[in-house]
Amino acid sequence: SSQWVQLDRFIPNRSAMNFDYAHYMLTGGGKSKENPGPTSPSKDQYRYLLAETLDMNRTRILAFKNKPSAPAKAIPHDISYFHVRSKPVKPSRHIPQTSEKILDAPDLMDDYYLNLLDWGSSNVLAIALRNTVYLWDASTGSPSELVTVDDEIGPVTSVSWAPDVRHLAVGLNNSEVQLWDSTANCQLRTLRGAHQSRVGSMDWNNHILTTGGMDGKIVHNDVRVRSHIVQTYRGHHYQVCGLKWSPSGEQLASGGNDNLLFIWDRTAASSNNSTQWLHRFGDHTAAVKALAWSPFQGNLLASGGGDGDGCIKFWNTHTGACLNSTDTGSQVCALLWNKNERELLSSHGFSRNQLSLWKYPSMAKMAELTGHTSRVLFMAQSPDGCTVASASADETLRFWNVFGTAKLVKPAPKTNPEPFENFTRIR
C-alpha cells in the first residue's frame, strides 16, 4: 500500500510572481555597489520611494501565495487632528420667573388702544394714570407728578419721551398734544389741529413727533416751528394704536384697529401724496398695536395681533415678505426685542396674562413670566436693555430682569441734547 510522503519542497505560485523582477534579481541587478558615491538623506528617501512604487523593496524572489489585502490604516495617535472643533455653547443665563419689584398703578386705564408707558434713556419711567402723568426715577426709586389735566381735555391717552429724554409728549383725549420739560417741570407748548379725536399713539424721529389718532390719521409734527404739521398720512380707516419708527429713522410702521399694518418710507414725507405707503399688510385678523423693530437687523419688524388673532408676525420691510408667523394663543398687547440676544418678549391678555420670551428665529419659547392677574397692556425697556417694566389692567407695574445683566450692554448712543431750545414759554 502506498503511503503519503512528506516532501521538503514548495511549489511557487506563478500567478503571484513578477517574472521580470525575478529575472532582474537573479541576474545580479539587485546587488548594490561596493563603494557607492556620496548620497544625501533626500536622495535616499527618493530612491526608497521610487523602489516602493515599482514594488522593488521585496527581499524574496519566489512567491508561494497571493499577498493578503492591505490592512486598514491604523488610527493615528494624534486623533485631535481629525476632531472638528465646534463653537463653544454659551451657558444659558438664569431667567427669573418672578418680578423683581411691584408698584401700584391705581386708575391705569384698561384700554388696549392706548400707549401709557415709556422708559426714557435718562432712566425715568413715565406712566399715565387717567388724568395724571407720573415720573418714576428708576435710579433712586422716587416718584413725582408731572401734570394732571382737566377732565375736559383728559384723560391722558399716550406718553412718549423725546430723544433728549428731557422732554415728554403727552397725548390727550381731546386730540391735543402737550410738550413738557420734565427737568424744569413746565409745559413748553400745545400741539393743536393735527387730529379730530384722541391721540392714542406717538413716536419720535429726531425733532419730528409722529402722532396717531382715533381719526385714523398719522401726522408728522415738527416741534421746532410754529406751524408744526408738516405731513399727514392717510391709510388707516380706524384709530391708529401702534406707531414705531425704525432705528435708522427711514421707515415708520403703523398699526390700527382696522387690522392693517402699514410701512411708510421717510423719503416720501415730502411728497404730496399722503396715501403713498411702502407696504400695506392685511394678514392680521385683529387690531395691530404691538410693533417692534429688530435692533440687529434694520429691515426686520415684529408685529402682534389683538384678540381674535394672537399671532406674532415677522416682516422684511424692504421686500414686503412675511418671514414667519407664530400663533401665541392669546391677545398680543406689546412686543420688545432683547438688545443683546436674538430674543423677543411679548405680553398677553386672556387667559394667562403672561409675558413670553421667544428665541428668534426658531420662536422656541424660553420662558413664561406670570404674576399679573389681568391683561398686560404695556411694556417698556430700561436704558441698559436688561429690565422690562410691564403695566397691567390689574393696576400694578411690575419689573422683570428678563434680558440679562447690564455689564453685557453697550452704552446708549448720544442723542441731540436740545430739540426744543427755541421754546421758552407756553404757546
UniProtKB/TrEMBL annotation:
Keyword presence, Cell membrane: no
Record GO terms (molecular function): anaphase-promoting complex binding; ubiquitin ligase activator activity
Domain CDC20/Fizzy WD40: 103-400
SUPFAM superfamilies: WD40 repeat-like
Top-level taxon in the UniProt lineage: Eukaryota
Record has Cell division as a keyword: yes
Coiled coil location: none
Annotated keywords: Cell cycle, Cell division, Mitosis, Repeat, WD repeat
Alphabetical GO biological process terms: anaphase-promoting complex-dependent catabolic process; cell division; positive regulation of anaphase-promoting complex-dependent catabolic process
GO annotations of cellular component type: anaphase-promoting complex
Alphabetical list of InterPro entries matching this protein: Cdc20/Fizzy (IPR033010), WD40/YVTN_repeat-like_dom_sf (IPR015943), WD40_CDC20-Fz (IPR056150), WD40_repeat_CS (IPR019775), WD40_repeat_dom_sf (IPR036322), WD40_rpt (IPR001680)
WD repeat residue numbers: 149-190, 233-274, 369-402
Function: Component of the anaphase promoting complex/cyclosome (APC/C), a cell cycle-regulated E3 ubiquitin-protein ligase complex that controls progression through mitosis and the G1 phase of the cell cycle.
Family classification: Belongs to the WD repeat CDC20/Fizzy family.
Name of the featured protein: WD40 repeat
Organism annotation: Dillenia turbinata
